[in-house]
Amino acid sequence: MNKLTQRIDKERLLLGIAAPLLAIVAALVVTALVILATGKNPGSAFSDMVTYGSASDSQVYILNKATTYYLAGVSVAIGFRMNLFNIGVDGQYRIAAFFAAVLGGALTTPGWISIPLIILCAMATGALWAAIAGVLKVTRGVSEVISTIMLNSIATAIIAYLLQPGKLAELQSGGTVISTKPLPSSSYFFQINTGAAGELWGFIVIAVVVGVAYWFVLGRTRFGFDLRTVGQSESAAMASGVSVKKMIATSMVISGAVAGLIGMPTLLNDSHQFSNDFPTGIGFTGIAIALLGRNNPVGIALGALLWGFLERTTNHLEFEGYDKEILGVIQGVIVLCVVIAYELVGRYGLRRQQQRVGAELAAQAATTQKQEVA
Amino acid sequence: MANKDIDITVRTGTVHALCGENGAGKSTLMKILYGMQQPDEGTITVNGETVTFHNPADAIARGIGMVHQHFMLADNLTVLENVVLGAEKLYGIGAKARTKIKEISDAYGLNVRPDVLLEELGVADRQRVEILKVLYRGAKTLILDEPTAVLVPQEVDALFDNLRELKAEGLTVIFISHKLGEVLSVADEITVIRRGTTVGTVEPAGTTPKQLAELMVGSELPTPETQESTVTDVPLLKIDGLHLSQTDLDGVERVILDAISFTIHKGEVLGIAGVEGNGQSELVEAIMGIRDPDAGVITLDGTDISHAPTRNRREAGVGYIPEDRHRHGLLLEAPLWENRILGHVTEKPNSRGQLLDIKAARTDTERIIQAYDVRTPGIDVTAASLSGGNQQKLIVGREMSHAPKLLIAAHPTRGVDVGAQAAIWDHIREARREGLAVLLISADLDELIGLSDTLRVMYRGRLVADADPATITPEELGSAMTGAAAGHLEHTEDSAEDHEDDAR
């Protein structure tokens, strides 16, 4: 027990809580000011958000949204831990969802075979798409930021080309929606019926598994240690025996594979087909959420939930006469506040630590000197 | 304590040298003079006026300028832009600044071309730009921190000519170095610092390098002398015809390592002497597998490892104390126990199979901290919060904990205080008795001579000379390092000065 308290170290715990707290308070203040500036009452807006956001149907909605966002956050975070900025998560998940949907529509096998196949297909597609950027970086030194942005556009173009009647898509009976062939109902992922509150997507289980795996692999395995080493110092990693190039390519592939999962909650639990209104831009949301969660598996989960909460409640604010743009403002302010707060607290913590080390040394020196005198 | 009871008087219009071993406190003193650190007690007087410097700007305002050992220049800017950067208020950024630069350059014979891109300049030219930068800001006193460490002999001579020019114009130069020959040739007065204290000021005219060395080292300091030879005849590391070349940005092929061959036996310390930048770093990187040699064979304990990955070499028992511990030896933002894993993640006690063994790694970190006297409040603080000497002790402890067969030690005691230095030497000696082979690279000639069983001199990517550490003196070794001597260096019983003349 004693050892445990020693390890947790009060000051570090305090600093750990200080940063997010500081960020949330700052974000609330700024948002309140923005609402005030539009001539509305921020107090009633916040109370409406809390009441509406905590309703049971909102809770289910938020969890469902957060499942998708969580996967996006983890996918981006894998890159971040490596010092790689995988902006291409967006393209990776869309192209992965598209091909997975095509495969799912074509399969006539029972669900226990089809569902894993669909998921695997999505992961493989995402991984392959990300691998292009990884290989380019390793062999030609192309910045992954540039290549993944371009691959996003290429993914959009490929999907647009293939998502046409006669190619890999068909016109739905209504005549307005073009989509891939819908999945047979045997390929639907399980859902948890919560009664009036709606259906909770079963894919949340997979998201939790991904989170645990992320924590375990990075924190507890040799591979994870190597990966983090490269992220912290490429030169030290190289000297320590990590093959940096191989690591870059590998982590890009893993990030892409997780990105492939992002579209799966929607595909397997909700839409059951890839149509031209399949959600876009979640890859970018993932960047914000990974920043918010500081690449920490629990932090990303909190970030994803917060994002879901904000989306749900600001939608409702619109009916109450507030401007809907407030969502973007709040989200932007939160990310900024979090990044700034962590940086400030981090620097303060490092300074404190250096002071403590210095103080300790001085104390040791004083005692040895006394001994010499005596 | 880095500095105490420092008394130094520098007269206007002179070149004053500050001499001392690595870690003697020269850099700290300079930082205080330049306002980067504040003294706890004592005063600084400039032209009869007592001053306090809170930051470098204060020092510059008083006419004190510093030329750092590591240049602070932007590669993608021209010389003119580099000079005016941060001092735009003085003469603007246009024609007036250019005229001023020309004027300074001509006055002191610096030969600076204002419109050349910095990346096109060599080291010596960059140094002149740094000097010009300081003069441009109105400095009357220049502090040069180890300016010759990166220069080849001819460039050193040119620099000294510049310094004499500056002196002739009435400027004052404070010149920091631990190279005795240089100090004696350029300085008007020499102040020696040992263990943070000034031990004396001498005039070069009446001083021999030997006297100066004695002043620097002092009699009570531990010397890195090894007692009895432990060299066996079992070869452990064999390097044969190693060659490495690199094509630079202009497409010119530059030979970095050429025809390097040597053998280190079990229980042997092979020391490599040389001015920094003559290929030592690259040689180490080739042996570690960080650079792939173009030709040649590296054999470790009978196995050809010429092109093996770094990790395999580490697992085969190569310990590595890197030259730049911040870039190559540590994860500065990670806690100490993670730094203990670094480089040995595949070995016990750090991991079992594919999984990390965090508990064992933490316990072992505690042990290293005890055994190697790393001063830290705990193993969860980041490596960045330790002092340089304690970081080095952690690295040495880590590398020695895996019972290496071969230790590559590049400047193992650089920036380490005297006590820790002795401890690190002891650890190396002890492991050597048990059959460790060591490749030692050091700028500290006493360390090289004291620890090594065999000495080689590296010059421009080649091993040009060898010497017997039992008889050679630092001065003789120093002159070979400048490329002035080759082959087997024989110690002559004459005074060192005569020997230098012979060599030339």
TrEMBL record, chain A:
Identification of the protein by name: ABC transporter permease
CC annotations in GO: plasma membrane
InterPro entries reported for this sequence: ABC_transp_permease (IPR001851)
Keywords: Cell membrane, Membrane, Transmembrane, Transmembrane helix
Organism: Streptomyces guryensis
MF GO annotations: transmembrane transporter activity
Record keyword Plastid present: no
Short name of one Pfam family: BPD_transp_2
Superkingdom classification of source: Bacteria
Subcellular location: Cell membrane
CDD domains cross-referenced by the UniProt entry: TM_PBP1_transp_TpRbsC_like
Protein's membrane topology: Multi-pass membrane protein
Listed transmembrane segments: 12-38, 58-80, 92-109, 115-136, 145-163, 200-218, 248-268, 326-345
